[in-house]
């Protein structure tokens, strides 16, 4: 259950967040802020997808700062991580 309603459809998939993400630059294990945030949020709303890649997000908020549409990507990521941890435990 989301604490804050963030519309993932505001994301225009420009990948600017990906370019500014320090984690995505150093590990292929992290799918990146756009995929883990707005793209996967659509699936999470339907309860059909989760990804362990969430654990790699450092919550640095570079994605939020870089997003030209003002999507709170880091909030989507942290809420998704919270839900994942509640369902699966801390892995």
Keywords:
single chain; Fumarate Reductase Iron-sulfur Protein, Chain B, domain 2; globular; mainly alpha; 91 residues
Model description:
- Helix 3 (33-44) packs across helix 5 (73-88).
- This protein is globular.
- Helix content is 47%, strand content 0%.
- It has one domain (8-88): Alpha-helical ferredoxin (Fumarate Reductase Iron-sulfur Protein, Chain B, domain 2, Orthogonal Bundle), CATH 1.10.1060.10.
- It is mainly alpha-helical.
Which H/E pattern describes the elements? HHHHH
Number of strands: 0
Output the number of helix runs: 5
The level-1 CATH class: Mainly Alpha
Classify the beta-strand content into a percent band: under 5%
Distance between the termini: 20 Å
The assigned structural class equals mainly alpha
Contiguous runs where pLDDT drops below 50 for at least 5 residues: none
**Largest β-sheet summary:** none
Helical percentage: 40-55%
Please state the second-level CATH architecture.
Answer: Orthogonal Bundle
Shape: globular
């Amino acid at each position: 259950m989301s604490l804050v309603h963030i519309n993932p459809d505001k994301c225009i998939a420009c990948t600017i967040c990906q370019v500014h993400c320090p984690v995505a630059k150093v590990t292929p294990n992290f799918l990146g802020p756009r995929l883990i945030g707005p793209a996967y949020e659509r699936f999470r709303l339907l309860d059909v997808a989760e990804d362990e890649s969430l654990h790699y997000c450092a919550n640095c908020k570079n994605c939020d700062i870089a997003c030209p549409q003002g999507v709170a990507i880091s909030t989507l990521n942290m809420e998704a991580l919270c839900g994942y941890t509640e369902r699966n435990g801390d892995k």
